[in-house]
Design brief:
Helices cover 53% and strands 19% of the residues. It has ten helices and six strands. It has a six-stranded antiparallel sheet with strand order 3-2-1-4-5-6. Helix 6 runs antiparallel to helix 7 and helix 6 packs across helix 8.
Length: 217
């Protein structure tokens, strides 16, 4: 039997909820028409008017229910829930977030695939072999989740191998590269300089520390 994910109500049912009491410091309406509530101990959050109901005056107390520390699941005032999410609600919201993220990935790929392919074609063979392995292992999943990220690593690796610091700086500015990408790129450049291109082709994905997948599969 497969393990439940955040898309399943059973996943949320297995996670304990915490309820803490807070005192309102301020409850103000945002430009979008929601309520921004801050408390006397520094906690703050934004919820819709539909969730909060009537605004709370400074000094009023309320109970906030959460799961996984940061996900608000309920808001109670004077012993009555103004809103409370069920496990089914949490699963539905998780599915909606995943679907929205997937749509964004598809849109990003469609907008960039011609440019990314041109970049990949311009790379030397020693670094392209690594990208080809990811594509063969994961197919569309790699294109959606890792292609742009790995192309940035590849371009940085080529620049580091050439000791071209100006190009490294340009790529960092234009691509908004992360420290993780630079660390991977430096490691790949060092392997190339040592003549170990096979190790480069078999090296783990740049997002492996986050995803746990060595090749996006």
């Amino acid at each position: 039997m497969s393990e439940h994910t955040s898309h399943d109500a059973e996943f949320w049912a297995a996670r304990p909820r915490s309820i803490d009491t807070y005192t309102v410091r301020e409850c103000v309406e945002t430009e979008r028409g929601d309520y921004q509530i801050s408390t006397t101990n520094g906690i703050g959050f934004i919820r819709s008017k539909a969730d909060v109901g009537a605004p709370l005056a400074p000094g009023a107390e309320f109970d906030l229910e959460t799961v996984n520390i940061s996900i608000i699941t309920g808001f109670r005032v004077d012993g009555r829930w103004r809103f409370r999410l069920t496990n089914q609600d949490l699963a539905r919201e998780a599915r909606e977030r995943t679907e929205a993220f997937r749509r964004k990935q598809v849109e990003q790929l469609e907008a960039n695939k011609a440019k990314w392919w041109a970049v990949e074609q311009s790379l030397p063979g020693w670094i392209r072999a690594r990208i080809n392995r990811f594509r063969e292992a994961a197919g569309e999943k790699f294109l959606l989740e890792g292609w742009g990220y790995e192309l940035a690593i590849a371009q940085l690796a080529v620049a580091y191998a050439a000791d071209d610091h100006a190009e490294v700086d340009r790529l960092a500015r234009e691509l908004g590269t992360s420290g993780n990408q630079h660390d991977f790129a430096k490691s790949l450049a060092a392997a190339h300089e040592a003549g170990d291109d096979e190790a480069i082709a078999q090296s783990v994905a740049g997002l492996a520390p986050i995803t746990g997948s060595a090749d996006y599969s």
